[in-house]
């Protein structure tokens, strides 16, 4: 991760060469962003809304899997209903990971 040097005070004589401390970029960043995992995840000012977004993705999939996909298992021969259910679950995992990461 890139680091920024902290500005030296005006009354300082410059100090020793190894005396300067480095400030992480995510700590020096000015703004309303929220940083998690030491700056590896950066959210906007409403970072907590990601949980609501994931819920809005997962809730319809859970309802579909519980009520509709169970009936698809009976309608399609040769276990095609299971493949539909597995495709829906894998697609949901992919989309959820895309939004979270």
TrEMBL record:
<feature type="transmembrane region" description="Helical">
    <location>
        <begin position="50"/>
        <end position="68"/>
    </location>
</feature>
<keyword id="KW-1133">Transmembrane helix</keyword>
<keyword id="KW-0812">Transmembrane</keyword>
<protein>
    <submittedName>
        <fullName>Uncharacterized protein</fullName>
    </submittedName>
</protein>
<keyword id="KW-0472">Membrane</keyword>
<feature type="transmembrane region" description="Helical">
    <location>
        <begin position="80"/>
        <end position="100"/>
    </location>
</feature>
